[in-house]
Specification:
It comes from Paenibacillus mesotrionivorans. The longest helix has 23 residues. 51% of the residues are buried. This protein is globular. It is of the alpha/beta class. 43% of the residues lie in helices and 14% in strands. It has a five-stranded mixed sheet. A five-stranded mixed sheet has the order 8-9-10-7-11. Strands 4-5 form a two-stranded antiparallel ribbon. It is built from 20 helices and twelve strands. The chain has two domains: 242 residues, 3-Layer(aba) Sandwich (D-Maltodextrin-Binding Protein, domain 2); 165 residues, D-Maltodextrin-Binding Protein, domain 2.
Length: 486
């Protein structure tokens, strides 16, 4: 699932090799007990016993957080304690092979019952007919446990295909010392945001030169590898395009505002605020540049990066050789992406979760119900509390939030408040976009936008050239009346 929804966990995969995350829990054994996925008929154990037959539910799960996979055995035990006749069989996967493993099983017609994927991957598997619609299977207690916004991301059309694990906002991150040296009121920016013009002036002030050489850039964003889609998709949401499609399903990226963002991308490179070799910087390199003081602001940023920076700071203090080479101590500051062209700020969000699959053979009604119990167990209560606390992401289930009360984490209150502001204007879910349109947009992104973006970053084409190529491809894909003309 190498899509924009892989967002938080894929980015972590790139960062973990440089600055491993450490759990900030005050003791995982002190966390609340799993909250039962009770049905209206009584306690989960009673319901399970009443159902009779033993059953095994399979799940393919990547390293969602640093310690997630270490807890698989305990998760299985806890689930079996709730449902004595049910077994949760978890297959671990790395982020590198998660997509391949899942697709291999899907193509063979025997996918796992549950897989942890980005919500933006749901339409792909719906199109293949391999997802299990749980709309009528998830009881009211399960559904009402989740915040409505994140839950919408797990839908395609009106059908629900799983439960969300977290909802995280994509931000950018600053080095507090450098921000303050540049005279940037970061606390004000966290709460009130900033325009592109304000942001551009700020990052200019963050540049440090040594003769003709740049020792520190104002802003660095990963634009290579798994992050190749991120930069534009995050920026354009703040330019009046929260989705590739308008509410009346016209393709939005033919708008003049999209061209305005492309021009801004070149401006920040041409004035020296960003590296000329930006197109070759992947997620790992840009995090390394941030920790070694080569940039004032980095992107994309996630709340959990505060934890990563603190972990590396601790290694520096302890003179631990596993600290990032030549790194400095960093006080990580969550910052919003600037808004463009007078448009309101709209946060790019990622919602990953536990998606329910079915094989070519129709599962029994009993097995379907059991899969739903397992998916809910993983997305709520103790499992959600421990995972989300480790990731520094907001709790989106009531049971997860309750279980998290016994978990202590060390987190900047300013950063926590900043993330709440970002989530308050998160891009809404768009389950109304037909699968066919979404597939065409993804094809256009992969075949036109990403290659042209690399050419733009390299200075090989102008913003106008890229916008023209996108428009021409969009007309072919969606028709002359299916695109925005402004």
């Amino acid at each position: 699932m190498i899509t924009k929804g892989k967002s938080i966990s894929l980015m972590l995969a790139a960062v973990l090799s440089l600055a491993p995350l450490a759990a900030c829990s005050g003791g995982k054994d002190n966390a609340s007990s799993p909250v039962p996925a009770a049905s209206a008929g009584g306690s989960p154990a009673a319901s399970a016993a009443a159902s009779g037959e033993k059953d095994t539910i399979t799940a393919l799960l990547p390293p969602v957080s640093a310690n997630f996979q270490k807890k698989f055995e305990q998760m299985a035990k806890d689930f079996n304690a709730l449902y004595p006749n049910l077994t949760l069989k978890i297959e671990p996967a790395s982020w590198e092979d998660m997509t391949q493993k899942l697709d291999t099983q899907v193509n063979a017609g025997s996918p796992p019952d549950i897989a942890f994927i980005g919500s933006d991957g749901i339409s792909k598997y719906v199109q293949q007919g391999m997802l299990m619609d749980i709309t009528s299977l998830a009881d009211a207690k399960m559904v009402s446990d989740f915040d409505p916004g994140p839950l919408e991301y797990m839908k395609n059309g009106k059908s629900l295909y799983g439960f969300p694990a977290y909802m995280e906002a994509h931000a950018i991150g600053g080095n507090r010392e450098f921000l303050e040296a540049a005279g940037i009121d970061w606390k004000k920016v966290q709460q009130s945001g900033w325009t592109y013009e304000e942001f551009r002036e700020a990052i200019k002030k963050g540049v440090v030169k040594d003769g003709n050489a740049t020792k520190r850039y104002g802003f660095v964003f990963a634009t290579s590898g798994v992050a190749s889609k991120d930069y534009l998709s995050i920026l354009v949401k703040n330019a009046g395009m929260p989705s590739p499609f308008t509410k009346d399903l016209k393709y939005a990226y033919t708008s003049k505002n999209y061209l305005g963002v492309l021009k801004a991308v070149r401006e920040m490179i041409d004035d020296g605020s960003m590296p000329k070799e930006l197109g070759s910087i992947d997620a790992g390199k840009r995090w390394n540049m941030f920790l070694t003081g080569q940039t004032m602001i980095t992107g994309k940023g996630l709340a959990t990066f505060e934890n990563s920076a603190k972990t590396n700071n601790g290694k520096i203090d302890a003179k631990d050789g596993s600290a990032v080479k030549d790194s400095i101590k960093v006080d990580y500051i969550v910052l919003p992406v600037p808004s463009f062209l007078g448009q309101p700020a709209v946060s790019s969000t990622v919602v990953d979760g536990y998606v329910t699959f079915r094989g070519k053979k129709e599962p029994t009604a009993e097995h379907k119900a059991n899969v739903v119990k397992a998916a809910y167990f993983l997305a709520s209560g103790k499992v959600a509390a421990e995972t989300n606390s480790e990731l520094f992401v907001a709790h989106i289930s009531k049971t997860g939030a309750e279980a998290a009360k016994s978990i202590t984490i060390s987190r900047s209150p300013e950063n926590e408040a900043a993330v709440k502001v970002l989530l308050s204007h998160a891009a809404p879910a768009r389950p109304d976009i037909p699968v066919e349109l979404g597939a065409k947009a993804t094809k256009l992104e992969n075949e036109v936008i990403i290659p042209k973006m690399q050419a733009l970053l390299a200075g090989e084409i102008k913003p106008e050239d890229m916008h023209k190529a996108i428009t021409e491809a969009a007309v072919k894909a969606f028709g002359d009346t299916g695109i925005v003309k402004d």
